[in-house]
Amino acid sequence: MADENIEDQNPDAVDTGENTPDTDGAPKPPWERDGEEFSPEKAWSLIQHLREDNTRLKASNESNSAKLREIEDAKLSEQEKLQRDLEEAKARLAEADMAKAWAEARAAHPQLSEDDLELIGGGSPDEIKAKAAKLAARIAAQATASENPTNPALRAKPTGGIDPTVEHSKDWLRDRLTNQ
């Protein structure tokens, strides 16, 4: 019922030609349909009326949801009402606990940003803190690696070769045989 179009509900509705395509197949703008020139004053007036209608519909929606809640309450027993209220309170408490855990994790690890909450996801407060600590450690390791790049030759710890600071003799074979 919520998916029904307003035009379908009103049998007296007349096709205004809003969806009639022009020769190119694209819908025409409203000011070209009736053959009249575009008027900024008329467009502004239309926008203002649409905003007023939107505000009225939001207020109506809120009052209708309150009425629906009252009707549902009338159908439920007292025990069911208390159970529903308890579940809603638990859900709000879980959200508050998650927000508190995230705030504590951000305080403990300042390199984390608000966008990192999406990476960490939900869970219990302990899980959030543990995931935040892991992510902060990775961010810190990545930051130090990018700030202090190591020489690949030193990282491989090469062995052998000649030390350029030491004087070597030209006859390496004779040196090797005499040092045994």
UniProtKB/TrEMBL annotation:
The Polar residues compositionally biased stretches are 57-66
Domain of life the protein comes from: Bacteria
Stretch list, region Disordered: 1-42, 55-74, 141-180
Q: Where is the composition biased (Acidic residues)?
A: 1-10
| Composition bias, Basic and acidic residues | 165-180
**Name of the protein:** Scaffolding protein
User: Which species is listed as the source?
Assistant: Bifidobacterium tissieri
